[in-house]
Recover the amino acids of this structure.
């Protein structure tokens, strides 16, 4: 995790600010809107962090990322 990209760092800060949790995940659409990037790019960049268990992801309607 020591090699975080700028986007990953910004996403972590955003999730912390939004107090993201399993009950209140933050969508890739919202993250993309705030960071001015596409939701698909958000998902591709955060996938590594999910694999490393840095972030959690709740799939489906109302899903998103959480700490």
């Amino acid at each position: 995790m020591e090699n975080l990209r700028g986007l990953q760092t910004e996403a972590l800060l955003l999730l912390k600010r939004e107090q993201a949790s399993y009950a209140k995940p933050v969508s890739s659409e919202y993250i993309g809107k705030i960071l001015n990037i596409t939701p698909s790019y958000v998902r591709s960049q955060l996938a590594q962090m999910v694999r490393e268990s840095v972030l959690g992801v709740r799939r489906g309607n109302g899903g998103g990322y959480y700490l």
Q: What stands out?
A: The chain is about 50% helix and 10% strand. The radius of gyration is 11 Å. Residues 25-67 form one domain. The first strand starts at residue 56 and ends at 58.
